[in-house]
Automatic annotation (TrEMBL):
<protein>
    <recommendedName>
        <fullName>YCII-related domain-containing protein</fullName>
    </recommendedName>
</protein>
<dbReference type="InterPro" id="IPR011008">
    <property type="entry name" value="Dimeric_a/b-barrel"/>
</dbReference>
């Protein structure tokens, strides 16, 4: 089984004010379904009120991420699934609940980690 990242950037969630509560409820319901199915690894979002730190190999750090990279934000779900087709189906369920498209990626696992 592979681990899949299902995610969206914050800017993708453009909802009318009266839909936010329902989207949150529906997204949490899908996560509960994933837990019940035994495929849940973790889920959450990037804390956008805490700036990233760029840490060098010698331990020095500066506030901010890579200056050339787009910001990393939004919501993330990691599921462990038997196939890409299963991952696509779960991503569709999450997209419907969140009311925005989801990006799907598979983790390349280092067998020595």
């Amino acid at each position: 089984m592979a681990k899949y990242l299902i995610s969206f950037p914050s800017a993708a969630m453009v909802l009318p004010d009266d839909e936010w509560k329902a989207a949150g409820r529906d997204a949490h319901a899908v996560i509960e379904e994933a837990k019940a199915a035994g495929v849940y690894v973790f889920a959450g979002g990037i804390a956008e009120d805490v700036p990233p730190l760029l840490v060098t190999a010698d331990g020095a750090f500066t506030e901010g991420g890579y200056p050339w990279a787009p910001p990393l934000n939004g919501g993330f779900t990691v599921l462990e699934l038997p196939s890409r087709d299963d991952a696509i189906a779960w991503a569709a369920r999450i997209a419907k609940a969140c009311r925005c498209d989801q990006e799907l990626r598979v983790f390349q696992i280092d067998p020595q980690s």
